[in-house]
Write a structure and sequence with these properties.
Helix content: over 70%
Number of helices: 6
Shape: rod-shaped
Strand content: under 5%
Radius of gyration: 27 Å
Oligomer: single chain
Length: 113
């Protein structure tokens, strides 16, 4: 007997997904750190450029929002639920699927008789 939970965990909880999310978060923090350091040096060199120093983070936040909300791909949660449902159905129907794939050999054996 194959348990559907084992397959669901293997498909949905892969280490690669966790690592890629962690790497993306670190990349985002790195970008924010670079912006903060650049803003510090710009303001130290030219205090009159504070309007531009404020404009850069506003632009970055607006761009991030635009990318995340407006250009959003399909919801991973919904796709994940659909995948889990299909996977569970396939695992529970494994005997039927295996019997279906044996059909050509059974047909051949009946044809020989």
């Amino acid at each position: 007997e194959i348990k559907p939970e084992l397959f669901e965990n293997a498909v949905t909880n892969e280490a690669a997904a966790v690592v890629s999310g962690y790497s993306a978060a670190l990349a985002g923090l790195e970008i924010l750190g670079r912006i903060a350091v650049n803003m510090y040096f710009v303001l130290a060199k030219s205090p009159k450029s504070s309007l531009f120093a404020i404009g850069v983070p506003v632009f970055v936040v607006a761009w991030t929002w635009l990318r995340a909300e407006v250009c959003r791909p399909p919801s991973p949660k919904r796709e994940n639920m659909r995948l889990q449902r299909s996977l569970r159905e396939a695992v529970l129907s494994y005997d039927t699927i295996a019997a279906y794939f044996l059909r050509p050999s059974v047909n051949d054996s009946f044809a020989e008789r």
